[in-house]
Amino acid sequence: MVLFSRRGASGFSACNTAEDVTLGIDGSGLTAIITGSSNGIGAETARVLAMRGVPIVMAVRNTAAGTFHSINEKVCGRIKSSGLPLNILINNAGVMALPYKLSPDKVELQFATNHLGHFLLTDLLLETMKKTASQSNIEGRIVNVSSEAHKYNSWGAYGQSKLANILHANELSRRLKEDGAAITVNSLHPGAIVTNLWRDSSIFGGKSSSMVSF
């Protein structure tokens, strides 16, 4: 319990609620969009902001319509055509640790949902937010709900770089085949071989000059 009651730089701890944090705040006159607001953190954020007088546009999950095109047409299009101001954008929608699956746009689902969708939404609504901030003289807020899992992992980064090698080879092979070029592109896994690949690794303090490569 001590861990959760420790106060951070904001003066609040993990034991504080959204109602605690917003106590005394009057949000009337502001408008907010919250993605992933049908449950969890998004729903509680929407509930408390509404309690403080903020009109909420709840962008909820729709798997069938969850394409980049639908973000443009169905979310941003409606917001812009409504003429509503936009002071607050909370990019909250997310999925975590799913089995491998592609989004309707053929992008790995976690990356598509957690980053690309929010990147696009923010970009498309940015001019509306700038206009609102300028006309209202109230500073806008964009909040990306992230995670401690963002921290750099050397093995994860290594794996991603090698995945990029394979994807590059696969796509280049496909394009060369389409062009009728007599060139083969392969991805090679060398297996366990004694090399100096680990010379810069922090795992062994960069002292090992003859380790296994894979």
UniProtKB/TrEMBL annotation:
Q: Which domain of life is it from?
A: Eukaryota
Instruction: Please give the InterPro entries that the UniProt record associates with this protein.
Output: NAD(P)-bd_dom_sf, SDR_fam, TIC32
| Family per similarity comment | Belongs to the short-chain dehydrogenases/reductases (SDR) family.
Mind telling me what this protein is named?
Answer: Uncharacterized protein
Q: Where is the signal peptide?
A: none
